[in-house]
Amino acid sequence: MGAPPLLQLTGVSRVFGQRKALAKTDLSLSAGQCVALLGHNGSGKSTLLRIAAGRDRPTTGRVSFDGMPMNENDPRVRARVAVVGDTAACYPDLTVREHLQLVAVAHGVEDAEEWIDHILADRLLSEHARSLPGALSSGQLQSLLLAAALVRPRDLLLLDEPEQRLDPGARRRLAELIAAETESGVGVLLVTHHGELAAAVASRVIVLSEGRVVADGKPSKVLSTGPDGTTWAAAAERAR
Ligand SMILES: Nc1ncnc2c1ncn2[C@@H]1O[C@H](COP(=O)(O)OP(=O)(O)OP(=O)(O)O)[C@@H](O)[C@H]1O
Q1: Which residue has the least CA distance to atom 28 on ligand 1?
Q2: Which residues 6+ apart lie within 8 Å of 209 measured at CB?
Q3: I need a surface site. Which of 18, 39, 107, 175 has the fewest CB within 10 A?
Q4: How confident is the model at residue 228 (pLDDT cuts 50, 70, 90)?
């Protein structure tokens, strides 16, 4: 038998009260693969990503990471799964460098200072290393969240709209970063509103509408303009 997929969701759904946020969905992600999730606001993308991260439990179905049940309380899972969520979680009284030191120490990173210098330079944060989060621009804060995911080891990277607040140059560097991650064997699940970013980095694109998968395939197919001139976004709107 071959190795299990890095991440596997089987029959996963999520209901909040009366609201069906996610209909039964299957998803499989291999090491070194990037899958992008697109869809309008409220279509269920973050719900799916939170379940994939083990941060929320599905109403039905199961999630496994490298053959083990996905559970963020399991240290074996936490050591290998990095998440950049949709809310900025920072300590107001720790500098940019101190945030990265904290994450590096928690994950047992050796020679952390040199590595932190590298990550700060890579995310264009070197001159803000001594700044507190309150003194950062929103784009710089987003770069800090990405840097915190990069400073630690990972086999799976879960990104919820990482392009938020980034300017075009920073978005280009984000695309390069995701490409470098997959090249080094990391599996990436990317929630995004940016079709161009998805086309640049993903080998598979899934479009959600009202919690249902309405398109699934290669970016060239899913993100191309339809025969009637519509784009994926218009098709997803129509499916509502
Ligand atoms: N904790 C919750 N309690 C109740 N309803 C929720 C909860 N989380 C999400 N929902 C609902 O589930 C649906 C899907 O939300 P979700 O955040 O997954 O959408 P999304 O596709 O990520 O949207 P966006 O692009 O705006 O981030 C929405 O209708 C939302 O209101």
Answers
A1: 42
A2: 39, 40, 43, 236, 237, 239, 240
A3: 18
A4: low
The CATH number assigned to the domain holding 59 equals: 3.40.50.300
The single-letter code of the amino acid at 65 is F
Both tokens assigned to 102: 């904290």
CA–CA dist 160, 209 (Å, integer): 17
For atom 11 of ligand 1, which residue has the closest CA?
21
Supply the range of the domain harboring residue 115. 92-153
For residue 1, being part of any structural domain is answered with no
Same domain flag for 55 and 29: yes
Point out which residues pair with 182 in neighbouring strands: none
Mutate to test the pocket of ligand 1, among 18, 20, 47 (most ligand atoms within 8 A of CB): 47
pLDDT band at 229 (very low <50, low <70, confident <90, very high): low
Atom 5 of ligand 1 has which residue's CA nearest to it? 16
47 ligand 1 Cβ < 6 A: yes
Question: Is 8 touching ligand 1 by the criterion CB < 6 Å?
Answer: no
Is the C-beta atom of 59 inside 6 A of ligand 1? Answer: no
- pTM score: 0.93
Written as one letter, the residue type at 142 is Q
What's the confidence (pLDDT) of residue 178? 97
Encode pLDDT of 142-183 as tens digits.
999 999 999 999 999 999 999 988 889 989 999 999 999 999
**Residue 44 C-alpha to ligand 1 middle, in angstroms?**
6
| Residue 170 domain-assigned (yes or no) | yes
Q: Tell whether 128 is covered by a domain.
A: yes
